[in-house]
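Figure 3 (text version): structure tokens given as input.
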């Protein structure tokens, strides 16, 4: 059978790595196949935060890490299907 990618879209070869749950759809995905996105999120509402920051308040931001399966990563523009010669470029889309 033809293979689209030498690695099959996974980071490691062989062995049981275990599954993690997708943050988008809840599907269980192998840990080395999942796409991880880390964003800094503020717990305060945007309008309120803007006002508070103008008055000089320091509002802490927390890092939120989310795991996406390939389908959800494409849907959320974390990944995109690209031509064969562009696939090895690992710079993030945005
Ligand atoms: Zn998903």
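Below: residues designed for each position.
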């Amino acid at each position: 059978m033809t293979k689209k990618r030498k690695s099959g879209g996974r980071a490691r070869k062989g062995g049981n790595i275990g599954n993690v749950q997708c943050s988008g759809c809840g599907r269980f995905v192998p840990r080395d196949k999942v796409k991880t996105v880390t964003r800094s999120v503020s717990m305060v509402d945007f309008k309120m935060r803007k006002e508070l920051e103008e008055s000089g308040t320091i509002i802490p931001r927390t890092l939120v890490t989310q795991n996406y399966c390939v389908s959800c990563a494409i849907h959320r523009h974390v990944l995109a299907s690209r031509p064969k010669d562009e696939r090895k470029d690992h710079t993030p889309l945005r």
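DSSP finds two helices and four strands in the chain.
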